[in-house]
Design goal:
It comes from Mesorhabditis spiculigera. InterPro entries: Asp/glu_Ase-like_sf, Asparaginase/glutaminase-like, L-asparaginase_N, L-asparaginase_N_sf. The protein is of the alpha/beta class and 168 residues long. The protein has one domain: L-asparaginase, N-terminal domain (Rossmann fold), CATH 3.40.50.1170. The protein is built from four helices and twelve strands, in the order E-E-E-E-E-H-E-H-E-H-E-H-E-E-E-E. A four-stranded mixed beta sheet has the order 7-8-9-10, sandwiched between helices. It has a two-stranded parallel sheet with strand order 1-6. It has a two-stranded antiparallel ribbon with strand order 2-5. It is globular and about 40 Å long.
Length: 168
Amino acid sequence: MAGLSSVLQGYPRNIGGYAFEFVTPPAALEILRRGRALHLGGNQLTHIPAFAKDSQHVTDDDRKHLVEIIQSHPTFKKILITHGTDTMIETAKFLRTQSSLQDRIIVLTGSMTPAVFRDSDADFNIGMAWSAVQSLKEPGAYLAIQGIVANVENVERNLETGQFLINP
C-alpha cells in the first residue's frame, strides 16, 4: 500500500527552486523491482494507492480512510505502508488502536530524503520494511526505518535530529 511518503516524491527543478510531486510508478515498487524482491518468499506484492499527501497534513479522516482500505482486503494479513516521516508514529499508533486490524501485521516506513535523490535512505528503508513485513510473526503496528524495526509503542523520534529511537 502506498501513500504519504518522501519515498514517493519527486522534486523537478523549476524557476522557483524545486517543486513537489509524487512519481509514477511509485518509487517503492521500483526499489523492490530493482532488488528483485517483488515475489520474495512466495509473497505477492499488491500495490494499492491510498492517497498522496505530505504527512504534515495527514488527518484522522485520512487515517480512517487507510483503515477502510485495509478492512476491504481481509485476506491481506501483512501490510507495508509508505508514509512520510513527520507523522508516521501517529498513523501507526492510530492503526494499532483499530480493533478490526488486530490480526494484521502492519509495517510503516518512509524516508528522510526522496528516492529520486542519490543519497536517499529510501532504498535501505524499503528493503528493511519489506523484509520485516515478511519476518514478523506477531500482529501489530511496526516502524521500519533508520536501521530499526520495532513495535510503534517502543519508538520515539528526536524532533531536533529527526532520528527514530527505540525506547529503553
